[in-house]
Amino acid sequence: MELKGLLERGYFPKELPKPFMTRSFASLMDTLSDYKEPEKIPGVFGKEIIKKSNIPVAKEVFYSLARVGLKRRQLSICNPVLFYLLAREIVKNWQEIKPAVSGSNFAATEPEFKSDGRAINGKYSQNQRVELAKKNRIGARYILTTDISRFYHSIYTHSIPWALHGKNLAKANRRLDSLGNKLDYLVRQGQDGQTVGIPIGPDTSLVIAELLMHSVDKEVAKNFPHIKGHRFIDDYELSFTNRDEAERAYHILDANLAEFELALNTKKTYISKLPVRLESNWLSELRQFQIRSDKNTQLSDLESYFSLAFDLYNKYTDESVLQWAISCLRSVPINEENWDSFQRLLMLCVTPEPSCLPFVLEQILLHKKKLSNVNVLKDELTFLLNNIIIKHAELRHSSEVANALWGCLAFRLNVNSNAVNKISACRDSCVALLALDCEQENLLESSLNKTLWDNYLNTDALYGDQWLLSYEMSLKGWMKPKKNQDYVEKDPNFSFLKENNVYFYLERNKWDDDELPITPSLMPYDNYDHYSYHPLFRGADYSISKE
Q1: Contact 421, 445 (CB under 8 A)
Q2: Cα(282)–Cα(321) distance, rounded to whole angstroms?
Q3: Which of 217-221, 416-420, 479-483 has the lowest mean pLDDT?
Q4: What is residue 542's DSSP assignment?
């Protein structure tokens, strides 16, 4: 496994706006192996983890991600010092870890190092669920489907050494001379010493999750040697010849999860008699839709397609219907004369379902690049993005506000005074950096009130829950503290990063307009990866290509 790849493509959550990146951090950390005297590397970057007193405690920056309806997910932007130490430990000991995350009969998300996309990802992609179901249901009469209640939030960090070394041995030895204890300790140190929960977002968490779930899988397989099924992280589908077996498997699975202080989600547990649908009704309806290329018929088709998507959205309120419907339009060649209508149809999705915003911005950027003689509807997009900011800023809805500001930067749209006032009260590193970048680009109609953010311009804040803002302000010089202006230089870890010009946010004046940072690959629907979807518009009079 490659450490540079993990730091570059497996560190920040994939859902962040693309200007947030870790490329320069990965490049610098990759060079540390060339140091002939690692102990002389500043801070703890070159230190072996043998004493707990050597490792700082840090907090994560939280990013509140909009999901479907009222659902949200709290993502973590881990402190770079602690994330580097954890990633290095996993890479250095991969040969010991690999057997513990391999060999399960069910694990579709067995972690593998990837050469592109995320650094560590599952063996099977999410859109292969249907293929696995077709294979594993053959000869079965019943399926058990279930998942774990608040899985990542519920993981007990002390269970990491339990999974690696066995519970009794791990409890007898709590020293840092075992890999499991080191991983447990580093995870805890990176989340303010908390023992419950692991970060959602970095690829290292997939490795930790699979350590636990592989142990559970093996116990289930012992009781049912011929069982078939698959598991995507914590989401099981297991096949059985009779209902009694399915019920027994549920209880065995629940008992083994309890060994790791985890529990099944009874509200999402079903024993279903086969045959059952391979995919949701709304997916099948959208897949059957055809969009033609002729100017007049295409406009009619687009209006009908979105009308269908709106109906399905209102019918399937817990599913990511609109996100999936929008993302599948990436490969559809839009006629230039339909461009304005296409933009308006996209924008209609955002206010009722704010989690659509990154997909809408992505569509406009991608299609604008393909159509040479069209313009973005800036007045309407400006109105929409400002309203999103005003509505969601005071609720600390990171993804809505951050993506709206990212859209203003990408299309050079003004942020009105009301929105600026709302942003100024946001205690959110990502929002603050994007807003300050807008200020540098003269996109704000009034001045930001930076009083709140001044609190993070100090050395202690580098290990707090706004470390990203604290560090980037010093690096970019966008804000200066009234005293202690060299606060980053006083910390050996962050001063080392600053001296080597490591940045975690790429400002607008360094973007290449021909290669604007596009929203990264997202997963609009838990069961489908929209960057590897099946051709949606079968029967249309042009070919569909996967991009």
Answers
A1: no
A2: 7
A3: 479-483
A4: S
As given in the structure block, the two tokens for residue 252 are: 């065995």
C-alpha to C-alpha distance for 116 and 478, rounded to whole angstroms: 34
Q: What are the phi and psi torsion angles at 237 (to 5°)?
A: -135, 115
Please state, in angstroms and rounded to a whole number, the distance separating the CA atoms of residues 293 and 337: 11
For residue range 307-351, list pLDDT tens digits in order. Answer: 999 999 999 999 999 999 999 999 899 999 999 999 999 999 999
525 DSSP 8-state letter: B
d(CA 132, CA 239): 11
| DSSP per-residue letters across 133-161 | HHHHTTT-SEEEEEEBTTHHHH-BTTHHH
Whole-number Å distance between alpha carbons of 423 and 408: 14
Q: Answer for the pair 308, 289: CB distance below 8 angstroms, yes or no.
A: yes
Percent of the chain residues past pLDDT 70, beyond the cut:
93
Helices (H), 356-466: 357-370, 378-392, 398-411, 417-424, 429-440, 451-454
Is residue 200 a contact partner of residue 234, using CB atoms and an 8 Å limit? Answer: no
Token pair 């099946």 is at which residue?
534
Contact 49, 86 (CB under 8 A): no
Question: 340-375 pLDDT, tens per residue?
Answer: 999 999 999 999 999 999 999 999 999 998 888 899
Contact call for residues 164 and 184 (beta carbons, < 8 A): no
> Is 326 in contact with 308 (CB distance < 8 Å)?
no
Q: Cα angle vertex 68, ends 66, 73, to 5°? A: 40
Ramachandran bin of 527, using left for φ above 0, alpha for ψ from -120 to 50, beta for the remaining angles: alpha
**Pairing mode, if any, of strands 270-273 and 142-147?**
antiparallel
**Cα–Cα distance measured from residue 137 to residue 139, given in angstroms and rounded to the nearest whole number:** 6
Tokens of 471: 């560090």
224: number of Cβ within 10 Å: 16
Quote the CA–CA distance of 398 and 65 in Å, as a whole number.
6
The token duo for 254 is 């629940």
Residue whose token pair is 């749209």: 413
**DSSP code at position 31:** H
Q: Has residue 6 got a pLDDT over 90?
A: yes
Radius of gyration (C-alpha) of the chain in whole angstroms: 25
Q: In whole angstroms, what separates CA 458 from the centre of its chain?
A: 29
Contact (CB, 8 A) for 500 and 42: no
Unique residue bearing structure tokens 């704000």: 444
- Tens of pLDDT, residues 522-543: 433 333 332 233 223 222 222 2
Q: In the predicted model, what is the mean pLDDT of residues 374-403?
A: 97
Distances, alpha carbon 33 to alpha carbons 4, 80, 257, in Å:
11, 17, 39
Instruction: Give start and end residues of each alpha helix (H) in 42-166.
Output: 80-92, 94-97, 129-136, 151-154, 159-165
Residue positions counted in the chain: 547
Give residues with Cβ within 8 angstroms of 137, minimum separation 6.
Answer: 143, 228, 239, 274, 275
Closest residue by Cα to residue 265 from 234, 242, 244, 240: 234
Q: Which residues of 151-175 are buried (b: 16+ CB within 10 A; e: fewer)?
A: bbebbbbbbbbbbbbeeeebeeeee
Cα–Cα distance for residue pair 175/163, rounded to 1 Å:
16
